[in-house]
Input
Amino acid sequence: MLHLPDHLLAGYRNFMNGRYLTESGRYRELAREGQAPETMIVACCDSRSAPEAIFDAGPGELFVLRNVGNLVPPYEPDGEFHSTSAALEFAVQSLKVKNIVVMGHGRCGGIRAALDANSAPLSPGDFIGKWMSLIAPAAETVSASTFMTATERQTALERISIRYSLANLRTFPCVSILEGKGRLSLHGAWFDISTGELWVMNKETGDFERPVLE
Output
């Protein structure tokens, strides 16, 4: 008896008869030679904002790390378990990626939880609450703004959290050193689920702008 939901098996069947069939040579090459993506994407777990779909990426093109709220914690070599830091270390030190993109998105549940100080924990461990406390100072400031609507506060914190993650990335020596040498570039982006629009952070001003597509 197969122990996978039927829709997953149906999707796998479509994959084997479609994409894998047309890209089987590429998959065999990746299996033989290993991966060498030039770009790492730090994205949210949200099922509506898959980087591979948004950037129309093929196999082996993107090294994707997904967590709640697309957050990067500060560098803390304290002997604890750090999955995000481990993925970052592997991408930079082993794969030697040239770009890291922190991509947030609209209507993020993690960001909404960070803004709602009165929300009850989903479990006694309150793992989401602890994780989203990484942006607690910004969440408190944004929440206190009575001149913005709830939707505006949500979007504001979604974009501010991207800047937080970029700042935390630079606390990692391997990142700051390579960026200083011009061998690694950091980028911010925000995806609007409802319209499909991608907003890219201007490195000079920090503003999010829509790229002009030819």
